[in-house]
Structure prediction request, 1094 residues.
Amino acid sequence: MFDVAAFKQQFPLLGHYPELIYLDNAATTQKPRCVLDAERAYYETSNANVHRGAHRLAVAATEAYEGARDTVARFLNAASSDEIIFTRGATEALNLLANTVGMLLSPGDEIIVSTLEHHANLVPWQMLAERRQLSILPLGITASGEIDLAELATFLARPRARLLAISHASNAIGSIQDIQAICDMSRQHNCLTAVDGAQAVAHLPVDVQALGCDMYVFSGHKVYAPTGIGVAYIHNKLLQRIPPWQGGGEMIETVAFSGTRYATPPGHLEAGTPPIAQAVGLAAALTWLAQQDRAALLAHETALHQQLEDGLRAIPGVVIHGQAAHKLSLSALTFGHVHPYDVAQFLDAQQIAVRVGHHCAQPLQQALGITSSLRISLAAYNTADDVARCLAVLADTLDMLN
Amino acid sequence: MFDVAAFKQQFPLLGHYPELIYLDNAATTQKPRCVLDAERAYYETSNANVHRGAHRLAVAATEAYEGARDTVARFLNAASSDEIIFTRGATEALNLLANTVGMLLSPGDEIIVSTLEHHANLVPWQMLAERRQLSILPLGITASGEIDLAELATFLARPRARLLAISHASNAIGSIQDIQAICDMSRQHNCLTAVDGAQAVAHLPVDVQALGCDMYVFSGHKVYAPTGIGVAYIHNKLLQRIPPWQGGGEMIETVAFSGTRYATPPGHLEAGTPPIAQAVGLAAALTWLAQQDRAALLAHETALHQQLEDGLRAIPGVVIHGQAAHKLSLSALTFGHVHPYDVAQFLDAQQIAVRVGHHCAQPLQQALGITSSLRISLAAYNTADDVARCLAVLADTLDMLN
Amino acid sequence: MIPTELLAHPFGQTITLTQLAATLDAAASWEAKNRLLVQLSRQLPDWPAEYKTADCKVSGCESQVWLRQDRSADGHWQVAADSDSRIVKGLLALVLTAYHHQPTNAVQTFDFEGWLQARGMQRFLTASRGNGLRAIVQTIEKQRQ
Amino acid sequence: MIPTELLAHPFGQTITLTQLAATLDAAASWEAKNRLLVQLSRQLPDWPAEYKTADCKVSGCESQVWLRQDRSADGHWQVAADSDSRIVKGLLALVLTAYHHQPTNAVQTFDFEGWLQARGMQRFLTASRGNGLRAIVQTIEKQRQ
Ligand SMILES: Cc1ncc(COP(=O)(O)O)c(C=O)c1O
Ligand SMILES: Cc1ncc(COP(=O)(O)O)c(C=O)c1O
Prediction:
């Protein structure tokens, strides 16, 4: 059995605020002690700049950094560590894709972007489309909040559809897509697939080789790791074809005013001093996560989410947005004419942390006909008590505000 | 008097390796305990995603992050915190400038780039030039390794010279430029000035208002702060005119498939979840540095550097590259037919850490007629013993290899 | 000109900042402060839909905020505001108390942020750069320049 | 064909990996290992400048490295290498001992990195992805494919 109390004790912030009920995990997760320790240990025993080091500290730093790359590759089951590029986060990873893979597209080509994408998986493609005269095909969702596979098939059949930008799971309404089926469909049409895994990695197993996707991105801070680090996985075949994006040290082989030669992949995509300590922290988080019984964590989260949605359905005036068959442990709510922001303020007064707003998914909110929702998002350190208390305060608050 | 022993005790890594003589400070500095503590405290007491927070932890995180921006603004004496953009490092900051300010330039415009720039302050401009049909004017240096002000005047007088990319101090040979005079000249010709302060900030006072520069960038990890954080200062007048670069959450106001409106500056330049904890760590480092007697630190570094170069001149076969009147506490060396890499390996065997290579300044190395040099770079925690021991081992090593 | 029905509220005229400060200070917990804001919001008129036009919308807030401002014949600034959030509307009541029906120079020397901070309510200020309450106050002050 | 003067060295023929392992293992400190590498380097011929052409330069190393490889009539691989760094040249001597004059299949099953690691010399491997010693070994193995 999964021991949530013991699990929770690994998170210093939750110990520091024993009354806090943190239900904003889709925005960022708390960090286990071992991750903070790993980052600190890096600074206290290995800190140096990486690569080209003629001294042992530089070798230690390089081993730590390149070792982190290996850890990420194993976590995603990438065929090679060379397919892993470190970025600041999922957002930068998606910008990197748009500015490198995107350069392989020609005017008139089409990029399919689903309506439930986070802005990070829409705006970079929009900017690219404007620059390169591409068009964006907005892919609709079903009433339950899943990708419309029928429409996807139609889009993929279009002769100029070249790239599909799709999230593994939605941050705004929690739908988990049938990402295997989607990747398979896309591949059959020779369409490149970029998967935004920002919300998936902390909860679901990921195997990029099984998926057969060309690109997969995520952020460290949403998977129990530090801020300031993210990952772009790019399949080697694609990686070999793409130009660099940012310029600077590390990414070049020779520089002269007369012209510059770039380093071999993935080096040419990592300009300048990378977020070394953060990569080390990410590796610690992924190693720690792999050591957990991940099926048990997921079962725990799923049970809590069941408890949450059962409770929510019993409170008059609560509307749950997104009814996908497979959902993250996340619920997006509105309350008729009571504003989500007001509800969140009363929850906060009882030390219950949730998020309110458009969750950086405005096209989706427009499709749902709402401007703002209150999002409750769970992680494995949440308890049945957390959920029960949240439900009770929510019910009282709505009572009071109505 | 500056107490170097007490100062040094603030650095856990140096305590962890009492025998280590770390002379690779231009690559990255070690971190004082208070910086590591501040980052850890952030994770343990304030960790949440920033902005739009409807709960107290999000407010605490936002205050910490925006407070860090205020600290950076004070450190640079910027007129407003809005002029501070957080990036991964100096390299990303320079890429940001090339991709935003650079978009204001028109085909045929000229960018002046000095020959001693780090690749980070050359390659992004080269890439921009290629994309936008601009030309790069390579600005020469004098025999002593300073910017050739006469040539600068000629270049600035050219009608299409629009932007000057110049470093405050050289990472490869240590020359400190007369940056005030350079900025003044550039401004008189209505040429935009981007100053790369990566090497300057840890040692020299910076006042962007006094300089009157339009842009100033630096990296956290070279000024006693964490990896994964850097800064681009952009003068407000310029900031208001430039387009966004990366797309995603936070940097937008409204997003729709039909079109997207961007947030007001500086928000539109920070896409996605920023490196929050790293910004907090940077603020801790800058606050700590401001609390030191910076003149005393500099005097200590200068005295050590004097001791170093006096000693180097007494060792037969040592060539010191760069003889600027004002130099960082940094010396770039070659040794006739003895390879710098070999010398560094013997230094490393005695726990003396230095760097070898082109120091990401290949055009400069070409101008100097060398392919590789050994760089000794000091920080305020170095001691007279460090320098004496380095000199002794160096002399022995050259003896042995000759 | 601001329609008079939007100005039918006591804030800045019969209700003063001093009074509000006392009431807010008496509300010790966040819960109590939230409740107070909801109560205050009920004294501000709900704007009819036709007045909620794009040109008077304040952007960058977590809820929708509409704001209209004008100078009356006697040199006083008139301010009216509405929001779809009760709590934000309660905050708008505070803003109106500080800015509505005040002579120009009185307002210019008033530190509204400091006043809120003294009430322990800075959390409503720091949500984000250029967002929320700060955006509203900035909008007011900018329009007056 | 590799000019014979570049092949005038004992590594891989009269000097074997077993011998070198014993010598390296006896050199306990890094200092001692560095000295040994310098000594080994002296047994490798310095290439005349005309052979140091761009096509045989290995890129991405901290020093300049030149490498030529060819298959002799009897199916053995011949390797010659030079560097402007003594220590790198010493490392090249190790590489040649493993790869020069060996039958193809012997080399393919040999784990040079593991061998170096067992000598406590992995620091020469990890300098960087695709740099240094690893780049040299990869170049050799790639050319043989
Ligand atoms: C689905 C999804 N994609 C992308 C992002 C962007 O991640 P980050 O802000 O860490 O760059 C997020 C985070 O909000 C997300 O939920
Ligand atoms: C002068 C100069 N500019 C720019 C950089 C790039 O900094 P970073 O690698 O931290 O992005 C460096 C660091 O090597 C530098 O010394």
Remarks:
- Residues 35-290 of chain A form a domain with the Aspartate Aminotransferase; domain 2 fold (CATH 3.40.640.10).
- Chain A touches chain B through 89 residues (CB under 8 Å).
- Chain A has two domains: 4-30+293-401, 35-290.
- Chain A has a mean pLDDT of 95.
